[in-house]
C-alpha cells in the first residue's frame, strides 16, 4: 500500500469530520491545497443510479458561470466557411484529412473536438482512438454542430463535461485553487442544478447519496448534499 505524503497527512487533519455547507467546503479545500501549482478543484457526486442500465445513464455538459480556469485547446473538423468561422472563433486546430492523419499518428494537441455534421463520416472512423480519451464529438454534447463558433466559445469559456461512471459517481471540474471560495461555490451550484435536472426517470430511492470536493493533491471534503447553493437553497428528495 502506497504511503501517504506528510503534506497529505497534515491536510487530512484539517478535514472536518462532518459534511459542511458548500461555501465552507470551498474555503477548507483552498486551505489544504498547498501544492506549488494551481490545483484543479473537482466535485464528486455519488448518485443512486445503476449505469449498467440503459435508462439510468447520466452524461452531459454544463457551463460554469466563473469558467473552469483551464486553457482548453479545441480541434475542429470542418471545411469551407465552417473552417473559416472556426479559425475566427479561436479554434486551435482546424482541418479534415490532415487532422485525421495527425490523430492516427498519435498526436493529440487538443482537449476537446468539434465537428460539423458533414465531417462525421470521417470522424466516426476515429471512434476507437477518440472515444476512450473522451474526445469524440457528440451531438448530445453540442460538439457536432454547424455553429462551430458557438461550440468553441462555450468550450473555451468554461463548459465542462460530466458523466457518471460504472459506480454511479460523476466527477466534475469546478475550477482552480486560485478561484475565490464564492466563485467555486457558484460553479458548484450550477453543476448541482444540472445534476438534479438530468436525474434519470428510472432512478429509484435517494438520488444524491453523498458529495465530496477535493483538489488535485488533497483529501476529499464532504459537502452537505441537502444544501444546493452556496448559502441558502436546500434540496429535498
Output the keywords.
237 residues; alpha/beta; 4-stranded antiparallel beta sheet; 3-stranded parallel beta sheet; 8 helices; 30% helix; globular
Describe the structure.
- It is a single chain.
- The chain is 30% helix and 20% strand.
- It is built from 8 helices and 9 strands.
- The strands form 3 sheets. It has a 4-stranded antiparallel β-sheet with strand order 7-1-8-9, covered by helices on one side.
- The chain is globular.
Low-confidence stretches: none
Into which percentage range does the β-strand content fall? 15-25%
H/E series, N to C?
HHEEEHEHEHHHEEHEE
Number of strands: 9
Measure the end-to-end span. Answer: 39 Å
In helices, the fraction of residues equals: 25-40%
Cα-atom radius of gyration = 19 Å
Q: What spatial form do the alpha-carbon principal axes imply?
A: globular
Short description:
The chain has 237 residues and is of the alpha/beta class. It has eight helices and nine strands.
Write the layout of secondary structure elements.
Layout: H1 6-12, H2 22-32, E1 40-47, E2 59-63, E3 74-77, H3 80-88, E4 93-95, H4 97-104, E5 112-115, H5 120-123, H6 127-130, H7 148-157, E6 159-163, E7 169-176, H8 181-197, E8 208-215, E9 221-223
Parallel strand pairs: 3-4, 3-5
Antiparallel strand pairs: 1-7, 1-8, 2-6, 8-9
Helix pairs in contact: 2-8
Amino acid at each position: 500500500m502506497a504511503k501517504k505524503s506528510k503534506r497529505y497527512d497534515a491536510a487530512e487533519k484539517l478535514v472536518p469530520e462532518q459534511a459542511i455547507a458548500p461555501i465552507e467546503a470551498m474555503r477548507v479545500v483552498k486551505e489544504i491545497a498547498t501544492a506549488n501549482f494551481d490545483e484543479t478543484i473537482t466535485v464528486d457526486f455519488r448518485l443512486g443510479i445503476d449505469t449498467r442500465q440503459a435508462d439510468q445513464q447520466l452524461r452531459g455538459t454544463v457551463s460554469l458561470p466563473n469558467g473552469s480556469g483551464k486553457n482548453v485547446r479545441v480541434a475542429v473538423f470542418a471545411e469551407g466557411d465552417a473552417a473559416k468561422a472556426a479559425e475566427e472563433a479561436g479554434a486551435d486546430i482546424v482541418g479534415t484529412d490532415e487532422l485525421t492523419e495527425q490523430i492516427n499518428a498519435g498526436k493529440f494537441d487538443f482537449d476537446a473536438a468539434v465537428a460539423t455534421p458533414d465531417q462525421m463520416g470521417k470522424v466516426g472512423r476515429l471512434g476507437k482512438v477518440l472515444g476512450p480519451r473522451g474526445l469524440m464529438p457528440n451531438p448530445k454534447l453540442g460538439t457536432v454542430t454547424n455553429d462551430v463558433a458557438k461550440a468553441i466559445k462555450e468550450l473555451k469559456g468554461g463548459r465542462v463535461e460530466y458523466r457518471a461512471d460504472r459506480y454511479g459517481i460523476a466527477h466534475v471540474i469546478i475550477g482552480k485553487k486560485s478561484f475565490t471560495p464564492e466563485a467555486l461555490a457558484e460553479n458548484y451550484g450550477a453543476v448541482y442544478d444540472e445534476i438534479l435536472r438530468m436525474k434519470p426517470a428510472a432512478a429509484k430511492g435517494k438520488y444524491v447519496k453523498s458529495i465530496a470536493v477535493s483538489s488535485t493533491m488533497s483529501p476529499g471534503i464532504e459537502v452537505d448534499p441537502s444544501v444546493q447553493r452556496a448559502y441558502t437553497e436546500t434540496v429535498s428528495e
